From TrEMBL:
The active site is at K170. This is 6-phosphogluconate dehydrogenase protein. Residues 165-281 form the 3-hydroxyisobutyrate dehydrogenase-like NAD-binding domain. Keywords: NAD, Oxidoreductase. Pfam families: NAD_binding_11, NAD_binding_2. Belongs to the HIBADH-related family. GO terms for molecular function: NAD binding; NADP binding; oxidoreductase activity. It comes from the Bacteria. Residues 2-160 form the 6-phosphogluconate dehydrogenase NADP-binding domain.
Amino acid sequence: MRIGFIGLGNMGAAMAANLLKAGHEVTAYNRSPAKVAALAAEGARPATSVAEACQGDVVVSMLANDDAVEAVTFGGHGIVAALSEGAVHVSSSTISTALAERLTGAHAEAGQSFVAAPVFGRPEAAAAAKLFVVAAGAPATVAAVTPVFEAIGQRTFVLGEDPSAANLVKISGNFLIASVIESLGEAMALVGKAGVDKQQYLELLTSTLFDAPVYRTYGGLLAREEFSPTGFAATLGLKDVKLALSAGEELRVPLPVASLLRDRFLTLLATGGGELDWSAMGALTAWEAGGKAPA
């Protein structure tokens, strides 16, 4: 397939590289030209504009937030204006359900198709093509872009025809991950202050009732106090918790834990931890109990 790829951050660069490895023709655009050059060395065609990346069958966007997606999608030189009739925009960004609905309508009006396909997995999973893809859109369109999902992930979950449903599920999943980070951090602070080795404690947890990737991954980061280099920035963690709260407000679903998590992320950001991995939020309790600040 001829695929445009917009957004070569921690996740996007690896996803685009795996599309190349799967034999697809990839044209890449990123605000930082150096990242485009690195992918071009692997065989991608560099694009100097969003419009130039939208000349194929599909364009995939993997960007940080609603503002970034809106900036490349709308306007005279955005994806909607540049994409040909019948082509597909696949958004793998974690965005609000409201923006997903707006994108669905704008592409339909332009005679294009839109599929929401956010992913679960950290950069190492993206590099290994082991992401979990959560997709939603018109069945024929989802089927047509399935080769994209097969190149970047180990399994795709299709949630129906409404793209915003995929974004809501992604938001809910990130809320759950943040909940695990906070609760793990509290538990480790409790046993750690009593002198229990945190790595030994994690081994006990993951060898018994908590043998799940989210406990192993984030428990390991917390036990090792390994919050840099950043896999997923704390600023993005705050953004996703706020998306959960916004969705809850819209649907009239109270999310009291999400409110707590918002405040915990705000504490981390206020004390200089915004560029740390979001797992650093779980280290706040140990700091508040007399330990060192997450760094």
